[in-house]
Every structure is written in C-alpha cells, then in structure tokens.
Task: inverse folding
C-alpha cells in the first residue's frame, strides 16, 4: 500500500496552513515485492514422464543495515531465477543444483537452455548455426532427472536488478557478487525448506570463479558445505590467462589450445587431436618456458628454430611467430590462423569462423562463435519465459550486459585475481565436497592447460587431488554443449557427478 500524508485541518475542514493546500501529498514508496509465477509441466522421457513445477521470477533479498535494530531487513536486490522442482520425489533427500554463467555480465541463459534445463535451444554448431525461426526442444538429458535445478542471473543480467533506491554498482565486483549469490542460495534453501538436500553449484566461465568463491563463503560464513562444484570452462587464476607485460604464463597456457584449434582447421592432417594436444602440452611445459626466459640471450638461430617449432604446432607462419618474439597473444592468433583464407576464428569456440572485415587486422574484430550462437538463445529465452513459463516484465532480459563494468577486484590490488585458494580452503574444510572440471579443447577464452596447471597447484593433499577432482575434456569450445556429442557426454558426466555413480567408461 502507498500511504499518503494529509495536511492538518481546522474544525471547519480548511487547511491550518493555507499553503499546505498547494503542496502535493507526501508519499512513501511501496516496498518491493516478490514477483513469482509457478507453472506445472511434464517431460516425456524414455523411462516415463517427469512431472515438475517451474517457479519463475524475481525475489527480494533483504539485509540487516548496520546500526539498525537486529533483524530489521532492508530490501537491496531483486534477483531473477527459474526453479525447477520435480514432483513425486522425496524433496529432503533430492539434490539441488544452483547454476549460473559468468562474464562478468552474462545471464544464465547459456547453461539454462544449452545444457541443464528441461527445454533446450536448437542453436546449431560450428559450420551450421541454426537459422530462424529458432526453436526449443525437449531436453531428455536434463539434470532435472537427477536433481532439482535453480538457474539464477547475477546482478544487472537477465531480469536481476537492484531494489528501488539501491545502486547496481554495489554488486559489480568479485566479493560483492559472491555475497549476493550466497545470500540468494541461503534465501532459497530457507523458503523451500531444503536445508537437508545435497547442495551443488554449477558455473561456467567466470561462473566458475563465482562458484568457487560462493562455495567457500557458504562454508566460511554459514558453515554450509556443498556436496559438489561443477566447473565448466573454468578460470581460477586470472594471471594464467591475462596477457600483461612481464607475465609469460598465458603464452605457455594458450599454446595447447592454439594447437587444438589449428587441428580443427586442418593444419595437422592425418593426426589425431589428442596426439597434437599431447605434443603441444609437453612443449609448453618443458621447452617453451626456457625459451621465453632466455629472452635476448637466445641466439638468432635458436630463435628461428623455436619459431619454426611453434609455427608448426599452431599452424601459422614461423616468421610471424619470430616477429612476435615467440609470444602469441590469443586475439592476434585468432586473426592470423586463417588470414590467407580471409577468415577469423572464434574465441569462445575456435571451430567457428567468419569473414574478416579487415584482412590486415592485428586482432580478431568480433567473435564468430558468440555472433552465430547468441541469436538463437536470445529469441528462445524471451519466448520461453513469456510463453511457457508465463512470466512478464517491463525491463529487457539482458543476455549479455556491459553495464556491469567496471567490475571491482579491489581485494586483489597488486596481485593476481584468483579463487584457487578459496577452492583449496573449501576442500580442506569440507572432506565430502567433490569437484567436476569440464574443459573444451577449442576454448580460447579459458584455455584448458591454464586450468590444469592451477588445479595441480592447489594446496590440498595429493590423494584429494586424485580422488575428489574429476577432469573431463570435450572436442569443442567454451560452450561445449553446442557440439552434440560433447553435450551428451557432459550431461552424462554431470548426472554421474550429482548421483555419485561411477563413470560410464564405455560411454
């Protein structure tokens, strides 16, 4: 209700202050309220019908203001999510998976409609992106078979917005975003009385940074131990992928990905992908570090020999490698690999290509993989939310938003942004938490070798590394689920991870 304050009057009813009659009535804005819609659905699976509810919309999160009376919550955010809950199951024992994408600035439409939800987008794949009209298909491999699913959008993505009077920028940072998503998880478990359900987090890209930070914060702040974390296309230490002067780590870690992308475009004829990757990884770990460390001490003939070796591995002209001082930046590589064919390759997925607008461009000018996949996701999420899930809003659903920038990493001044220490601390504190790591060989956004390196350096016992961390690889890119064999494999791996069943080695 909106309360109005009326001016004081005399006994005759005239205003006590004549000027008060001319003043507009003061009002107190109505507090924000949850905006949720629940619909009932059924998915036909080979072994029978899966009945479920979908609860779609925004929930109001409240905080205890400093200095105020204990327990008096003030609204500070309205987060958008879709919660899928299977019917006819024991909710107390059924796992719950909270999923989010990354960016920062990406909504969770990608994991939602690409991999996890009961409906999935037909987006096509490299070389054959789907043409409009775009459509949704039943997802027979949905994680909903094994666990209830909550897909949530971070602040300023999807329909998530600050509460009236609040600024979105207060949530645009690693620590602030971590706290917001943690608060959402706590709120959801409480609202739905699911505190005893096994809890899983699934993140993609920066969502893996978020998942690691949130899982550690749940344990550190609330003593909530997650059963597992699925890290899809992870980045746990930004120092391994950020190209800055004096930091040679990205050049080493990207090289195996360059080799895999070169293989996808026929630069390694008659060779198996795994053989190419193994050779590139061995070079990146053994010879390459010494070559870069030598710098000006490297003799000209040694540099030429190294450039020839690198050029052969990644499918480019050795002279170009030598001019780059043996250091190949990823955006430059994606512009160079197929330059002679007039094409540039994708960053999110190096199997994708598009014509280059400038044949001499020093870097790729846009990402063909996002350009060719995003329209299908944009069209279907907007139709799906309004049509099948019956949710409407007067704001734009932000698929990808640049409005989250600048993104704050204030806690990491003068050091690399990383959450590997968070993940390691969580694993030391919570002995039952397990981790599933999923890498795409052709992912030039979060290269698999960087992730391998960070995971191998976690401050945990060796047996925990081998027994509690499962690492899988797929012949696709960052969003490996756009590649049908990889989607099926990843769905199977997630199912095994959540249900605790042994890996299906035959599959």
Result:
């Amino acid at each position: 209700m909106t309360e109005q304050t009326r001016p004081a009057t005399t006994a005759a009813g005239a205003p006590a202050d004549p000027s008060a009659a001319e003043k507009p009535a003061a009002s107190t804005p109505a507090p924000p309220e949850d905006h949720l819609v629940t619909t009932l659905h059924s998915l036909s699976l080979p072994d029978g019908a899966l009945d479920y509810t979908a609860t779609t919309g925004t929930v109001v999160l409240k905080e205890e203001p400093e200095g105020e009376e204990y327990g008096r919550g003030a609204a500070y955010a309205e987060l958008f999510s879709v919660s899928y809950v299977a019917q006819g199951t024991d909710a107390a024992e059924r796992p719950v998976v909270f999923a989010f994408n990354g960016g920062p600035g990406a909504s969770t439409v990608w994991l939602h409609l690409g991999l996890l939800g009961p409906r999935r987008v037909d987006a096509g794949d490299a070389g054959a992106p789907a043409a409009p009209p775009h459509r949704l298909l039943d997802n027979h491999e949905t994680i909903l078979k094994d666990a209830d699913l909550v897909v949530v959008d971070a602040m300023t993505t999807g329909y998530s917005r600050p509460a009236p009077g609040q600024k979105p920028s207060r949530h645009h940072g690693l620590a602030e975003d971590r706290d917001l998503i943690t608060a959402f998880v706590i709120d959801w478990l409480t609202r739905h009385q699911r505190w005893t359900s096994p809890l899983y987090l699934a993140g993609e890209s920066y969502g893996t940074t978020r998942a690691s930070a949130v899982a550690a914060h749940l344990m550190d702040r609330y003593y909530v131990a997650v059963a597992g974390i699925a890290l899809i296309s992870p980045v746990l230490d930004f120092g391994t992928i950020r190209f800055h002067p004096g930091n040679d780590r990205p050049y080493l870690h990207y090289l195996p990905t360059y080799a895999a992308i070169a293989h996808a475009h026929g630069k390694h004829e008659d060779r198996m992908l795994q053989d190419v990757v193994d050779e590139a990884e061995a070079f990146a770990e053994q010879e390459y570090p010494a070559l870069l460390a030598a710098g000006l001490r490297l003799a000209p003939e040694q540099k030429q020999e190294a450039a020839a070796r690198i050029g052969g591995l990644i499918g480019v002209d050795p002279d170009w490698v030598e001019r780059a001082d043996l250091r190949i930046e990823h955006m430059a590589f994606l512009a160079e690999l197929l330059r002679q064919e007039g094409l540039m390759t994708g960053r999110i997925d190096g199997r994708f290509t598009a014509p280059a607008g400038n044949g001499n461009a020093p870097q790729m000018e846009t990402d063909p993989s996002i350009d060719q996949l995003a329209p299908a996701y944009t069209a279907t999420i907007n139709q799906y939310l309004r049509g099948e899930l019956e949710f409407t809003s007067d704001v734009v659903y932000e698929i990808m938003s640049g409005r989250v920038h600048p993104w704050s990493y204030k806690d990491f001044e003068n050091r690399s942004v990383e959450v590997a220490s968070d993940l390691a601390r969580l694993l030391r504190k919570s002995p039952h938490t397990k981790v599933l790591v999923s890498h795409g060989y052709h992912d030039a956004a979060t290269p698999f070798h960087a992730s391998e390196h960070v995971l191998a350096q976690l401050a945990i016992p060796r047996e925990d590394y081998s027994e509690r961390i499962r690492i899988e690889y797929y012949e696709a890119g960052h969003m490996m689920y756009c590649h049908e064999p990889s989607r099926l494999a990843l769905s199977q791996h997630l199912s095994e991870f959540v249900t605790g069943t042994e890996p299906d080695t035959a599959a």
